[in-house]
Amino acid sequence: MKQNKEILARLAFKNKISQSQIDVLEQQIDASQGGIEKYLLSNKICTEADLYSVIADMYCVPFCEMQLLEIDKSLLEMFDYAFLRKHKIVPVCRAENGTLIVAMANVMNVVARSAVDSFAGHNVQYIQVQPSEIKKYISSLVAVKSTENALSELEKEKLLDPEKTPEELLTDETINAPAVR
Predict the structure, then answer these.
(1) Interval 145-159: pLDDT, tens
(2) Are residues 83 and 58 in contact, defined by beta-carbon separation less than 8 angstroms?
(3) Do the beta carbons of residue 70 and residue 93 sit within 8 Å?
């Protein structure tokens, strides 16, 4: 496949693999039928960051690590968390000219890009980010939201004393907890 050859050539150019490995890897990747990304990562031929920076270069989009991005949390309200998780995207910020900056695990996901474009109503600039980092970030968002919802429900049911700090509540629960032997 032409795309596989291009990725391997770019990895060789960046000294992540040797030129002599390219032909062998091409055959192994074709035989595996699991896709180049899966093959290279599962066999530890390159890191996820190396692979996706090469893919970003191929498609002329910026590559960035998720922890370096300053996420505007208000933009997260534009999208359902299930949508973010399914398409592995995170809206990052709006540029001064109104362009929405979006981090994606796969910048060539046309379905996700089309949906984001229709939601945004403005120009959109995509950034390639490692899929594992996007997944981790979205999972943390879901965990925080779930915790907020649970605390809200407890407050509604008067099971949570709004006057106490989380530390006091934990201490109360620990003292009143049954002993396990």
Answers:
(1) 878 777 777 777 655
(2) no
(3) yes
